[in-house]
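for the writeup, i need someone to sanity check this before i put it in the appendix. the sequnce is what the collaborator sent (i think, or maybe the updated version? ugh). structure was predicted straight from it, no edits. if anything looks off just tell me and ill rerun, i have time this weekend
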Amino acid sequence: MKIWEDVKSYELCGMETFTYFQQLSNGQHIGAFFQQYDEKDYNFAICIAEHPMQIDLWARGELILEKNNGNCGLEGLVYASKLLKWFIENKLPEDSKIKVHGEGQKGRAYKYLERIGFHRTTKIGADYYYIYKKKKVYKPEELCEMLRNI
Protein backbone atom coordinates (compact mmCIF):
# COMPACT_ATOMS: atom_id res chain seq x y z
CA MET A 1 0.00 0.00 0.00
CA LYS A 2 1.21 3.50 -0.72
CA ILE A 3 2.38 5.61 2.18
CA TRP A 4 -0.28 7.73 3.92
CA GLU A 5 1.40 10.93 2.78
CA ASP A 6 -0.23 10.14 -0.59
CA VAL A 7 -3.62 11.05 0.88
CA LYS A 8 -4.27 14.55 -0.46
CA SER A 9 -6.15 17.13 1.57
CA TYR A 10 -7.92 20.24 0.29
CA GLU A 11 -10.94 22.40 0.99
CA LEU A 12 -14.05 22.13 -1.17
CA CYS A 13 -16.94 24.55 -0.58
CA GLY A 14 -15.55 25.31 2.87
CA MET A 15 -15.44 21.63 3.83
CA GLU A 16 -12.32 19.53 4.36
CA THR A 17 -11.82 16.77 1.75
CA PHE A 18 -9.28 13.94 1.60
CA THR A 19 -8.62 11.92 -1.56
CA TYR A 20 -6.52 8.88 -2.37
CA PHE A 21 -5.85 7.29 -5.76
CA GLN A 22 -4.09 3.99 -6.50
CA GLN A 23 -3.69 1.70 -9.50
CA LEU A 24 -4.81 -1.86 -8.78
CA SER A 25 -3.08 -5.04 -9.93
CA ASN A 26 -5.33 -5.47 -13.00
CA GLY A 27 -4.73 -1.91 -14.26
CA GLN A 28 -7.98 -0.46 -12.90
CA HIS A 29 -7.86 2.49 -10.52
CA ILE A 30 -9.41 3.13 -7.12
CA GLY A 31 -10.38 6.54 -5.84
CA ALA A 32 -11.27 7.01 -2.18
CA PHE A 33 -12.90 10.17 -0.87
CA PHE A 34 -13.48 11.46 2.66
CA GLN A 35 -15.58 14.61 2.59
CA GLN A 36 -16.69 16.67 5.53
CA TYR A 37 -20.46 17.26 5.42
CA ASP A 38 -21.04 18.80 8.81
CA GLU A 39 -18.92 20.57 11.38
CA LYS A 40 -17.18 17.34 12.45
CA ASP A 41 -18.77 14.55 10.39
CA TYR A 42 -17.54 12.92 7.16
CA ASN A 43 -18.82 10.85 4.24
CA PHE A 44 -16.64 8.13 2.70
CA ALA A 45 -16.97 6.75 -0.82
CA ILE A 46 -14.85 4.59 -3.10
CA CYS A 47 -14.93 4.16 -6.84
CA ILE A 48 -13.14 1.58 -9.00
CA ALA A 49 -12.89 2.38 -12.70
CA GLU A 50 -10.77 1.80 -15.80
CA HIS A 51 -9.37 5.35 -15.91
CA PRO A 52 -8.69 8.02 -13.26
CA MET A 53 -10.71 10.52 -15.35
CA GLN A 54 -13.82 8.34 -14.89
CA ILE A 55 -13.30 8.47 -11.12
CA ASP A 56 -12.96 12.25 -11.23
CA LEU A 57 -16.20 12.60 -13.25
CA TRP A 58 -17.98 10.18 -10.90
CA ALA A 59 -16.84 12.17 -7.84
CA ARG A 60 -18.27 15.36 -9.38
CA GLY A 61 -21.58 13.62 -10.14
CA GLU A 62 -21.11 13.88 -13.90
CA LEU A 63 -20.83 10.13 -14.61
CA ILE A 64 -22.73 7.07 -13.43
CA LEU A 65 -20.55 3.99 -13.62
CA GLU A 66 -22.27 0.77 -14.59
CA LYS A 67 -21.16 -2.64 -13.35
CA ASN A 68 -17.55 -3.26 -14.28
CA ASN A 69 -16.21 -6.72 -15.06
CA GLY A 70 -12.86 -6.21 -13.37
CA ASN A 71 -11.58 -8.71 -10.85
CA CYS A 72 -10.10 -6.32 -8.29
CA GLY A 73 -13.17 -5.55 -6.18
CA LEU A 74 -11.74 -7.39 -3.18
CA GLU A 75 -8.36 -5.69 -3.58
CA GLY A 76 -10.18 -2.34 -3.67
CA LEU A 77 -12.11 -3.17 -0.51
CA VAL A 78 -8.86 -4.06 1.26
CA TYR A 79 -7.47 -0.62 0.34
CA ALA A 80 -10.72 0.99 1.48
CA SER A 81 -10.75 -0.77 4.85
CA LYS A 82 -7.11 0.19 5.51
CA LEU A 83 -7.89 3.80 4.60
CA LEU A 84 -10.92 3.84 6.88
CA LYS A 85 -8.91 2.52 9.82
CA TRP A 86 -6.15 5.06 9.15
CA PHE A 87 -8.64 7.94 8.86
CA ILE A 88 -10.45 6.99 12.08
CA GLU A 89 -7.19 6.74 14.03
CA ASN A 90 -5.45 9.83 12.58
CA LYS A 91 -7.89 12.36 11.15
CA LEU A 92 -11.41 11.82 12.51
CA PRO A 93 -11.99 14.25 15.41
CA GLU A 94 -13.30 12.90 18.71
CA ASP A 95 -17.09 12.85 19.03
CA SER A 96 -17.45 12.74 15.22
CA LYS A 97 -19.07 10.36 12.75
CA ILE A 98 -18.09 8.87 9.43
CA LYS A 99 -20.80 7.60 7.08
CA VAL A 100 -20.21 4.96 4.39
CA HIS A 101 -22.82 4.49 1.68
CA GLY A 102 -23.54 0.99 0.38
CA GLU A 103 -25.17 0.99 -3.04
CA GLY A 104 -27.71 -1.72 -3.84
CA GLN A 105 -26.29 -5.24 -4.01
CA LYS A 106 -22.72 -3.93 -3.85
CA GLY A 107 -23.62 -2.58 -0.44
CA ARG A 108 -23.66 -6.11 0.96
CA ALA A 109 -19.87 -6.20 0.65
CA TYR A 110 -19.72 -3.36 3.16
CA LYS A 111 -21.19 -5.62 5.85
CA TYR A 112 -17.54 -6.22 6.83
CA LEU A 113 -17.53 -2.71 8.31
CA GLU A 114 -19.57 -4.00 11.24
CA ARG A 115 -16.45 -5.92 12.33
CA ILE A 116 -14.47 -2.70 12.78
CA GLY A 117 -17.10 -0.82 14.77
CA PHE A 118 -19.56 0.50 12.18
CA HIS A 119 -23.31 0.14 12.65
CA ARG A 120 -25.73 -0.36 9.76
CA THR A 121 -28.66 2.03 9.67
CA THR A 122 -32.10 1.23 8.38
CA LYS A 123 -32.52 0.62 4.69
CA ILE A 124 -33.28 3.75 2.68
CA GLY A 125 -34.45 2.81 -0.80
CA ALA A 126 -31.90 0.31 -2.12
CA ASP A 127 -29.07 1.69 0.02
CA TYR A 128 -27.76 1.03 3.50
CA TYR A 129 -25.63 3.44 5.45
CA TYR A 130 -22.88 2.36 7.80
CA ILE A 131 -21.96 4.84 10.52
CA TYR A 132 -18.96 4.90 12.84
CA LYS A 133 -19.09 7.28 15.79
CA LYS A 134 -15.75 8.09 17.38
CA LYS A 135 -16.33 8.51 21.07
CA LYS A 136 -14.57 11.12 23.14
CA VAL A 137 -11.87 9.64 25.35
CA TYR A 138 -11.71 11.43 28.67
CA LYS A 139 -8.51 12.03 30.60
CA PRO A 140 -8.58 10.93 34.27
CA GLU A 141 -8.58 14.53 35.50
CA GLU A 142 -11.57 15.34 33.24
CA LEU A 143 -13.48 12.38 34.72
CA CYS A 144 -12.69 13.54 38.26
CA GLU A 145 -13.93 17.03 37.43
CA MET A 146 -17.14 15.62 35.92
CA LEU A 147 -17.77 13.53 39.05
CA ARG A 148 -17.22 16.54 41.31
CA ASN A 149 -19.87 18.47 39.36
CA ILE A 150 -22.56 15.81 39.82
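Residues 4-148 form a domain with the Aminopeptidase fold (CATH 3.40.630). The first helix runs from residue 52 to 59.
thx in advance!!
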